[in-house]
Specification:
7 strands, mainly alpha
Length: 411
């Protein structure tokens, strides 16, 4: 049950639809469809569904206004995307693999490692605390990320339940879906609409059109320290955002009673295992023996992996190309690194194949190493820049120089 003030109206290709009688029939579940309320959902339909035309036929029965001016100037139908989708479909048809799921073994192994390092950090030595922090980051990257994109399972209830791991590590799965799926994925690197581009302001800038202050000439030296604070800040900032129902400029349009209960229950669980249990075992020394080592190292790991993919010199150069094609924009504003690496696929949750993730967010990240060869071949045929770094070290160094460039001049 949603608030009476919550709108169930969505806008697609210049038309308005009332989905109040459809949300619980949505095959992808209510979590994803509610992201479309009171906003233009055209991009989400094209990126989450392999056959958008089928979706448009379903939407027709919910049409309440056919004479609106389209609010989304992006082009979604192109020869490139049509060919690419056919090739991706063919890969799954010939291989017999499912687009979603296949992450149970990774989930079990990561869960075991997290519990093990938690015990070792509190009972044996603080030296295990950073490993626990990295495990928490990996839960966010490998489990929570896929689940809240609807890629962890074909069952919406499973995606929702597993997606709560985002709350378990201190964030909020609800808020994350709004700003990540609705804002970042639809408007990647758009300084006005992508909330991820604003994350550093006013301390550091990630876009050339943002204001530059004198101290930013040192941002390449201190930004990584700020990345490390993500884990410390997230639990508290998410509570503030949940109460005001807004993350940056992104409104949390639909919050149900179930969402409220889940949010606060998961916060109690988080503070219980992260603060109360460690305090009971270690006393106040838990702060420097457990909490800070875990959060700072885990935050640095998580923040660095997320930041490098869209903020590097290759993306800066290719993004100068002016295009209204949605698929092309996703490609030129993203970059891969070590994209053939199975280990990095596991430990980054597929972020090493960021291009493929932005094109097909509802596909499980375990498929990205195979799909990236298809995407790259198609990009080459259509002369679309495909940004790729050989190793994580290479993109990390490039990110450092990218920060320096943006901090020292109005590039």
């Amino acid at each position: 049950m949603t608030n009476k003030t919550d709108s169930c109206i969505t806008y697609v290709s210049g038309k308005a639809y009332d989905l109040s009688n459809f949300e619980h029939k949505h095959p992808g579940g209510v979590d994803l469809i509610r992201l479309s309320y009171d906003t233009d959902a055209t991009a989400m339909i094209h990126s989450y569904h392999k056959d958008p035309e089928k979706i448009f036929k379903i939407l027709a029965s919910f049409d309440i206004d056919s004479d609106m001016t389209p609010t989304c100037p992006i082009k979604f139908q192109s020869d490139f995307l049509t060919v690419l989708k056919k090739r991706i479909d063919n890969y799954f048809e010939t291989s017999g693999k499912n687009r979603r799921g296949g992450l149970l073994i990774r989930t079990a192994a990561l869960s075991f490692a997290t519990l093990l390092f938690y015990y070792l950090a509190l009972d044996i030595s603080w030296l295990f605390s950073p490993f626990f922090g990295v495990c928490l980051a990996c839960i966010g990257l490998c489990i929570h990320h896929d689940a809240n994109h609807g890629a962890y399972s074909r069952l919406p209830a499973v995606n929702h339940f597993v997606g709560l791991t985002g709350d378990l590590i201190g964030s909020s799965s609800l808020i994350w879906r709004y700003y990540h799926c609705q804002s970042h994925h639809v408007n990647c690197n758009d300084v006005m609409q992508d909330e991820d581009t604003k994350v550093g302001l006013p301390l550091f800038r990630l876009h050339s059109s943002q204001p530059r202050y004198g101290y930013m000439k040192f941002q390449h030296l201190y930004t990584f320290l700020l990345y490390a604070l993500i884990g410390i800040a997230a639990p508290f900032s998410s509570m503030f955002e949940f109460i005001k129902r807004k993350h940056g400029d992104v409104k949390l349009n639909t919050i149900s009673t179930k969402n409220r209960i889940e949010f606060w229950v998961m916060k109690l669980i988080y503070f219980g295992y992260m603060f109360f249990i460690p305090f009971y075992i270690l006393g106040f020394s838990f702060i420097w023996k457990f909490y800070l080592p875990a959060q700072l190292i885990g935050g640095l790991y998580l923040g660095t992996l997320f930041a490098t993919n869209h903020n590097n010199n290759k993306v800066l150069e290719s993004s100068q190309k002016n295009t209204a094609d949605w698929a092309e924009r996703q490609i030129i504003t993203s970059a891969n690194w070590a994209s053939d690496s199975v280990l990095w696929n596991i430990f980054s949750g597929g972020l090493n194949c960021q291009i493929e993730h932005h094109l097909f967010p509802s596909i499980s990240h375990r498929h990205y190493p195979a799909l990236q060869h298809i995407v790259k071949k198609t990009c080459d045929e259509y002369s679309i820049p495909y940004n790729n770094f050989s190793t994580f070290r290479e993109i990390l160094v490039d990110h450092f120089w990218f920060l320096r460039k943006l901090g020292q001049a109005a590039h």
